[in-house]
Structure formats: C-alpha cells, structure tokens
Specification:
The chain is an all-alpha fold and 240 residues long. The protein has 2 domains: 128 residues, no CATH class; 67 residues. It contains 10 helices and no strands. Helix 7 crosses helix 9. The longest helix is centred in the middle third of the chain and has 25 residues. The protein is elongated, with a radius of gyration of 31 Å.
C-alpha cells in the first residue's frame, strides 16, 4: 500500500492492520492477483478510488440538480411551447406575399421542424439520469482490470481487497471500521447490472430511433389556402 501519507506508512498501523483476518485475506488476494499478471500499482490506484467514497446503504448521490420528474415536466413544457410556436408559424406562412420571402430565408419548413423538435423532446428518457455513481464505476473498473488481465473476475479476491482497504482507511483516519462489506454476491450483481445496461444500449443502437422523421417536402396542398386567398377558389375542384 504505497502512499505519500506518512501515517499510512506507520509500521505500528501496518502491524495493527495485519492482525485483522479481513486484512490478511486482502494481503493474500493482492499476492494472488499480482502473480496472475495484474500490476500492484494499478490495483492500488483503483482501490484508492473505491475507498475514496464512503459506503452507504442508499448509494452515493453526487448530483444535486432537479429530480427526474421535474426535468420531465420541464421537457413537456418546452415541447408544448414549441408546438404552440409551430402552429403560429404555420398561420404566418399563409400571409399573402410572405411565402416567397420565407423560401428565400430558408425557413419555410420551420413549423414542421419545430413539431419534430417537440416530438424529440417528448422522447427524452429522464428516469435515472442523475444516478451517476462514481463508487460503483470504480468497482467496475477494478473488476474490468482483473478480468482483462487474468481472464476471470476473481470476485473473492477483489472482495477481500476492497474490504481490507476500507478497514485500513478507517484505521489510518482514526475511525472505527464499519461493518458494511463487499461480498462476492454484491460484486456479481454490479457486473450483471452493467451487462444489462450495455445490452439495452446496444439494442437501442441497432434498432435506431425510427420514430424520427425527416422534414416532409412542401407540397401544393400546403399552399392551397394561400392560392385560394390570392386568386379565389378553384372553379373545377378535384372530386373524390
């Protein structure tokens, strides 16, 4: 456990740490992973990230912004406003003499574009957007390092290392070590959930967002109201 903190290098502290069976398991786990090809300084770096966050039963909340429900309400409100502007722009497009100017400005399709933007905002998924968990991310990074180096996750050894480092951190800070421990089942669950999230993401990427349509071309049907206002109704309307 190389660290620039002189207190963590205190021989008395190390002897106290080695008396704990939990920490003896961590020392053996480190030796096992190093023999299998993992680099000690990389493992210690990941463990330093993991123990840098205090464990809580409810997880770690870093983000302090609006709730997912509040963000969803704001998105719905913005989508409603865009649709309202789109309807007004569609009415403005019927004004005599303005159609050509809108074409020149490249904004003839603004109503349709606003409607499509509103539809996209309505499809934004807000559930869990603020659930970034750097502690869990660090655990996954350590497991990924071990798996990519040895071909296995070595859940038991990683569990022993994390628990041992938490115990050492508590001793170095003069705190009483807590009784919360990372067991093998917890680590397996973390990896399983990560795989499920990755699978869902790949599924969305393969299927694509087919509900998004391109702006439709401007047709004669769109300018029929304008034509009727300028030259009057068609004397020979098409019959169904």
């Amino acid at each position: 456990m190389n660290n620039s903190n002189s207190r963590q290098r205190d021989p008395e502290l190390l002897r106290e740490w080695y008396k704990e069976p939990l920490c003896q398991n961590a020392s053996r786990a480190m030796g096992t992973l190093v023999r299998k090809g993992c680099e000690r300084h990389l493992i210690e770096g990941y463990l330093g990230r993991i123990v840098g966050y205090r464990r809580t039963k409810g997880g770690i909340q870093i983000y302090k912004g609006p709730s997912p429900a509040e963000v969803a309400r704001q998105l719905r409100a913005r989508a409603y406003q865009l649709r309202k502007v789109a309807r007004r722009m569609a009415e403005l497009r019927k004004v005599w003499g303005l159609w050509e100017r809108l074409v020149e400005a490249g904004c003839l399709h603004v109503p349709e574009e606003l409607q499509q933007t509103a539809a996209k905002l309505s499809r934004v998924r807000t559930k869990g957007y603020a659930d970034w968990n750097p502690h869990q991310e660090a655990v996954l990074d350590l497991l990924g390092l071990v798996q990519s180096t040895t071909g296995r996750y070595h859940y038991a050894e990683v569990s022993d290392l994390i628990n041992g480092f938490y115990y050492y951190q508590a001793l170095s800070q003069g705190r009483t070590p807590d009784d919360m421990q990372y067991d093998v089942d917890i680590l397996k669950m973390v990896v399983s959930r990560q795989r499920q999230r990755a699978a869902r993401k790949r599924g969305r990427e393969r299927s694509g967002d087919r509900s998004v349509e391109r702006p439709r071309a401007f047709t004669p049907e769109d300018i029929r109201p304008l034509r009727e206002r300028i030259i009057g109704p068609d004397p020979n309307p098409a019959r169904d």
